[in-house]
Every structure is written in structure tokens, then in C-alpha cells.
Amino acid sequence: MEHQNPAPRFSLVVPAWNEEAVLPRLLDTVDVARARFHGGPRAIEVIVADNASTDRTAALARDHGCTVVPVAKRSIAAARNGGAQAARGEVLAFVDADMRIHPETFNDIDAALATGGCVGGATGVRLERWSLGILVTWLLLIPWAVLLRMDTGVVFVRREDFERLGGYEERRAFAEDAALLVALKRLGRSRGQTLARVTSARALASMRKFDRHGDWHYFPLFARLGILMLRRPYATTDLVRRYWYEDDRG
């Protein structure tokens, strides 16, 4: 009788749209972190959710040994959910294609989950470069991350809890990641658990949005987005399309 491969401990899901320029560098860092994992590299599967790319994103992912899941609906939330639906791991982790992860990512997340007091969370990030505008933006955002224990980087959640919450809200064109963490925090509170910030394994965040839109662009952008979220939280406006869905990645 043939034995099926045991379910992996982690499924790392990478939503990707036209990411051939940056995906290889992320996957190289994932290889290092998988090799360092105390459960062995086979305990971690890597899924690239190809969100209707028109470049070599899918081919590069396959060449790297990743499972490629096509997701036709152009939505970041749909891409994350599509990858999660194909995942077999006990723990789901999500990272953007333009990031790079820390060598101890999976070990440190595993240790946080092993305490039993953690419902999920994120690793936080380091930045590729700094400037005055980026520093001011960082200084305004980081207190909220510390206070709310909500962060970016590699986001992780037990599969059963992800499914209980219904995954990412696909009607949201943006801020789907924050909405999931809010729901996860609420779930954890009902069980005496908290969100974890595993800052010992911060990911390296790309600054391409700042490169493209300017180092001070967060201030006018998030003023407009804040008003949009209050009035029409599920709207897909020209602003949202331009910023998240129509970037020139040639």
C-alpha cells in the first residue's frame, strides 16, 4: 500500500501578479529558511497563487519547485484565499512576493505558536532603504503596530482558525490583511490568546511603492483611503486600482 506524504507543518502562500522581477529573490530566502527549520524543509510547502500574471511568474515558481495555483479573479484577497485552499499545512503563512524572509522565520513562528497563548500574528518588517519621508512614515505607523500587536511581514494563522474566519474578505479590494488580523484578534480574545509580533524574524520589505510614488506619498494616500474606508469600505476606486492593481511592473 502506498503511503501519502504527511501534511506539512507550514504552507507558505505567496500571492503574485507579474512578479518575475522580484519573486526569485524571495524564493531564495525561503529556501534558506526551509533548510534551517528544525522540522526539515519537507515540513514546509510553498504555494505561489498566480493572480492572472502575463509574465513568467508561474514558470519561475514552478522551476523553483513551488506549487502554482492559478487565480483568475484579480483580487489580492482572492489570490491569498486561492493559495490557502490548495494548502495542506497545519499553519498557513502569507508573504508578499516583493519581500524577503528571515532565515529563522519558520522556527520563530513555530516557537510562538507552541506557547499556546498565540492565536496567530506577523513577523513585522525591516526596510530596504531609508529617507526622511520613509522615517517619518515609519515613526507614525510603528506605535500602532506595537499598541494593536498587528503588523505586516509574514502573517501566520492556524489553518482551522483561518477557515473558521472564512479567510480573507474578497469583497475588499485593499486592507484585507488588516481585516483578517482584526478578526483573528477578536477570536483570540475569546480564548485568552493574543496576536504575536515575532520581531526576531522580521522580513525585509520592498520600497518599490515609495520608489514609484515618492517617499512622502503615504500621507495624502492614507488620508484619502481613510475617508474611503469610512464611506465605502468595499469600493474599488480609480485610486485603489492604480495603487494596488495597475502598477507598471515591466
Word description of this protein:
The protein has about 250 residues and is α/β, with parallel strands linked by helices. It has one domain: Spore Coat Polysaccharide Biosynthesis Protein SpsA, Chain A. About 45% of the residues lie in helices and about 15% in strands. The chain is built from 10 helices and 9 strands. The strands form 2 sheets. It has a 7-stranded mixed sheet, with helices on both faces. Strands 6-9 form a two-stranded parallel ribbon. The N and C termini lie far apart (about 50 Å).
Q: How many domains is the backbone divided into?
A: 1
Q: Give the rounded overall mean pLDDT.
A: 92
Give the beta-strand count.
9
Distance between the termini: 49 Å
Low-confidence segments: none
CATH fold-level assignment = Spore Coat Polysaccharide Biosynthesis Protein SpsA, Chain A
Please estimate the helix content. 40-55%
Structural class computed from helices and strand pairing: alpha/beta
